[in-house]
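Minutes, project check-in
Item: structure for the 402-residue chain
Input as provided by the requester:
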Amino acid sequence: MLSTAQPVLGFLPSVITPLVAQAYGANDMDGVQRHIGEALFLSLVIGLLGCALVTLQYPRLLGIVIPADAPAMVFAVPYFLCRGISFLPAMLSTVGFATFRGTMDTVTPLAVSAVSNIFHIVLLPLLIFNAGLGVVGAGVATVVSDLLSSAAYLTLLFRRGFVKMSNIFRIPDWGRIGELIKAGFAVQIRSLAFNAVFIAGTANIQSMDLTGTAAAAHTITTQFWSLGGTVLLALSTVAAILVPKAVASSSAAGNMQEAETSADRLLVWGLIVGVVLAAMQMAMLPLIAVFTPLVEVQEAAKVPFIIASLSQIMNGVTFVGEGIMQGHRAFVQLALNTILGAAIMLVALKFLGGTLPGVWASFMVFNVCRLTGVLAHHFFQGPLALHKRRKNASSPPPPAHH
């Protein structure tokens, strides 16, 4: 329950990273400090609300997944209440993570995560067994680890000049806070649309075959497909950082040429990586037999596996394009693209969802819609659209200053 709720509330990295990247790329440290201060303020509010929600409504929240008279409830309540405290430090940590990611510093978040996770691993047996706290000890270990992580991030943010105490406790600009919340709402709507797509596909698969053959074949295909998805998601994150930095540099130069080149190059790299991933996944087709000895599952997985492999080609461009849109802070347009794609995919399921290959073909329809949306934004709607490029190319350069 908590592991589901925290990502829902933790939309800040997606929203803050492009803002920090653009301000940092323009050497605007005042802007960096302002964005981080506003993000920390918002994370404090959300974290405190999360703690209060868990503390005051734990019977209802736990009742969603555990019957009130279940024996597990005795252990779940103290663990749930203990873990609820971690909402606040977890939210603060997301701001630190987003800040360093926006400045292209990936080593610092890795180091903080490594130290906090090692601390967590050491604490678990000490609190569960040596201290005799049992399940509660597991919750305490997680809270302490989250507190350590947030303390490390906050210390580093202050030491490196990314934020000042006055930025946190200053009365925020409610207009900008409203923009953050609006963008965060769009991010969550998009996330819900994604979840609806995969839930609908899984429901179709479960209903078409009660023997479990289709479900097993689907799981194997999904595991291979998600390996490529992890690589493409990383590339999408890079695009969300590089594009706003390039926009800031281009604006300072008086034209958008650097941003245009950077975004176009990223899309080409997305296509190249997608083709490579598709070829690699196709080459792994014989490995299906390693995952299951059942011949019927192997046969059921072949066609979906091929569809999933081929989809990586357009997924490369799609993921990068969505990262570019995040870099432009086009979160509402991203959400609308995903919702429209999900709606069309649900229609496709009505006609194709009777077989496992049909379900994966419906996923392909969803991805085609996403691809269409990102290309339309990049070439026709967004700040780097082709008609704007022609206008910029025909404009005289800014006068030189002597």
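Outcome recorded: The mean pLDDT is 88.
No further action items on this chain.
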